[in-house]
Amino acid sequence: MDQGNMSGVTEFVLNSLSGSRELQLFYFAFFTVFYLSIVLGNLFILLTIISEPMLHTPMYFLLSNLSFLDVCLSTFATPKMIFDFLMEHKTISFEGCMAQIFFLHVFAGGEMMLLVAMAYDRYVAICRPLHYATVMNVHKCIVLVVGSWIIGVLHSISQLVFTVNLPFCGPNKVDSFFCDLPLVIKLACTDTYILQVLMLSDSGLMAMMSFFLLLISYTVILVTVRRRSSAGMAKARATLTAHITVVTLFFGPCIFIYAWPFSDLPVDKLLSIFYTVFTPLLNPLIYTLRNKEVISAMRKLRNRQINFIYIYI
């Protein structure tokens, strides 16, 4: 048996966003609508890209995978959080807690790498347009997506392999609505200083390096766009600015939480909501609903569905 199973803790108690019963009922309704919007919105975008041949390009291939990752990232903990708003005792088993940590880092790590891949795609399209068709081929896109998933899985395993064997003998109260690594390892009945340093060198540096790489990439792209005065470049500049906003909202909370693992601030709980709940909804709004090609494809898909229903009625 590993130390985790030998410890006295078989479940963890999760803290809700508020102790007020009225507020928890409001949160239940609010986050239910929010979560359904995330899932339905991203799945509709995914279906639109798959069904429209015009969107079978590298950019939209990467974008469809981002939508899938957003559904996964919002699903690993949000449904349980919504369900817990109706429960008096909000608990999760030891195995369930470890599973949440694993899937969080798989999906978040994979999304970080995918956002870098999307920035690379935009760099080639804008800065090296004559080489785009050669550089961003089908094989390269598949490699980028598979590589993002592999890095996410390896990153998650590296985080979990030490945590699952920690001895937990109490207390068992996690100050968040899901099992977040910095909060869980603080509950271990042993000195976790070295583990927190390892987490800093892994999750913290991964988030910061990916974020700065993205900022450098987008800066180079914006400088290139600024030198050109066509209407297309003006549109690209506005789109890139929106992309940078989403990237900042996703990476900002991750860097704050994982680059300072020794802090114990109540704001961490609110920041966790940004990259697990809010950002998965912002991504489709920024990356797709501002795009005329996607909107046109959505209308075609909607019209086909309406015609299909009309024929069979």
UniProtKB/TrEMBL annotation:
Q: How does it sit in the membrane?
A: Multi-pass membrane protein
Q: Where are its TM segments located?
A: 25-47, 59-78, 98-120, 141-162, 205-225, 237-260, 272-289
Query: SUPFAM superfamilies this protein is in?
Result: Family A G protein-coupled receptor-like
Gene3D superfamilies the record matches = Rhodopsin 7-helix transmembrane proteins
Q: Indicate the segments forming the G-protein coupled receptors family 1 profile domain, all copies.
A: 41-287
Q: Where in the cell is it found?
A: Cell membrane; Membrane
GO molecular function terms attached to this record:
G protein-coupled receptor activity; olfactory receptor activity
Highest rank taxon of the organism: Eukaryota
The answer to whether keyword Disulfide bond applies is yes
- For the keyword Cell cycle, the answer is no
State the UniProt keywords alphabetically: Cell membrane, Disulfide bond, G-protein coupled receptor, Membrane, Olfaction, Receptor, Sensory transduction, Transducer, Transmembrane, Transmembrane helix
Q: Which GO terms describe its cellular component?
A: plasma membrane
The entry sums up its family as follows:
Belongs to the G-protein coupled receptor 1 family.
Under PANTHER family, the record lists: OLFACTORY RECEPTOR
Stated name of the protein: Olfactory receptor
